Amino acid sequence: MQIAVGAFGFGLLIGTGGAYGKLYGGPVVRDLLEVYTTIVRAVPELVLILLLYFAGTDLINRVLEAMGYARIDVNGLVAGIWVLAFVQGAYATEVIRGAILSVPAGQIEAARAYGMSPGMMLRRITLPAMLPFAIPGLANLWLIATKDTALLAIVGFSELTQETRTAAGQTKAYFTFFMAAGALYLALTLVSNVIIGRIERWSRRGMPSVAGGAQ
Amino acid sequence: MSDSASTSLATAETQNGAAEAIHIEDLHKKFGQLHVLKGVSLSARDGDVVAIIGGSGSGKSTLLRCINCLENPTSGIIRVNGEEIKLKADSHGHTVPADRRQIERIRSKLGMVFQNFNLWSHMTLLENVIEVPVHVLGIKRDAAVATAEALLDRVGLADKRDVYPAFMSGGQQQRGAIARALAIQPRVMLFDEPTSALDPELVGEVLKVIGDLAEEGRTMILVTHEMKFAREVATHVVYLYNGLVEEEGPPEQIFGAPKSDRLKQFISNIH
Ligand SMILES: Nc1ncnc2c1ncn2[C@@H]1O[C@H](COP(=O)(O)OP(=O)(O)OP(=O)(O)O)[C@@H](O)[C@H]1O
Ligand SMILES: [Mg+2]
After folding, report:
1. CATH architecture, domain B3-109+186-270
2. Interface of A with B (CB under 8 A)
3. What is the pTM of this model?
């Protein structure tokens, strides 16, 4: 859960920055981001997780050693968050980039015409205006984040699936425990859906509903 | 109104007692190879209502958008409020504003009204109107709300204050957009075809609001296809043809006794 929240949160930050970089950055920034999003989205998540987790911690330690510091034990939680955030960031970049492009250009132009600075325009106009277009995609990402925590089990990090396996292994009641784990994931999804629904309704407050009948 | 000196190189100081709010001199704008403005000069003193007319593609919108640097002019001088916009060449040889802060300051004195209203869709009408006063100009929220309510009342939208733009008619949105522009207490109002996107039956209500503003002596630059309206409210009319001022003068002269053949034809086509 912590991992999912952390990964999703940092993923959002990366995504917002990435989307901005892709839309307004210089050619170098854009190319780098293109490489980032393409590779991350092309390679299976499991492979990425293994790669980033092991290669990443190894790299950090090598750098530390080269600089004359002692090796450190990378905290599994922190590593898990960063690895997933890195993956989520690539998807979020594309979701948010698409959403920003959906904001009518006139609204951004109006913000410029009234003397808003770029930072204020982002906070006051672009982000809130793109939100309704981004929510469905971001909601998917959140659900994927919760489930990707299961993949981290492979790198020995304890999460729900891992705990289940341990518990099941000890008692031999595999079916019961995996059912319970499945139910927990499902419950998480259902609760998420309710919350996402609320956020989406709020973000769409300025939009007439398509399904007939205004607010 | 008897002066036709608007293209003269008079400084921003007073002339006929009114200070010069907008001064444009030899303005050029190119989009790549396309030379859209080919040396336009224009000036508006306080209280002037300058109507810009001309055929489609003649550069009217581009001219208006250069005034607040929504388009960067390729060359020329623009003075707003006596302050000259500082431009510089970037690494690609394009002209860009030299000082972002200056542009932002100048923009916050110009009330722009767009053809497509461009109200912010995630804010209620009232929030739209107080947005710039509160967040750009730093006015206290209470004061901004009071001003905004008075303005909405003025444009006949007092009951729409908590409504989102998508739930209003085009005419209401445009009147709301005018209230948003007025809320910054602009030195000059800029209108780019404010009624072109409206259903015919909604045009009147918007023109009425703009006409009232003209009457109370607001300085305005107005791009319009509504010739009858331009004739009524303008103090000065500029006819743009192919990126150049083909003819300009008081409305009686432009509409009553046009000199250039192109203008004659343009006016007869409209009627
Ligand atoms: N951003 C742009 N990039 C390239 N060309 C442009 C751009 N904006 C305008 N133009 C071109 O510049 C010319 C003048 O456009 P402008 O919008 O100023 O005309 P206008 O007089 O306002 O016409 P209309 O009455 O149709 O609004 C047109 O040929 C147009 O295609
Ligand atoms: Mg135009």
Report:
1. 3-Layer(aba) Sandwich (3.40)
2. 104, 106-107, 109-117, 120, 124-125, 128-129, 131-132, 203, 205-208, 214-215
3. 0.82
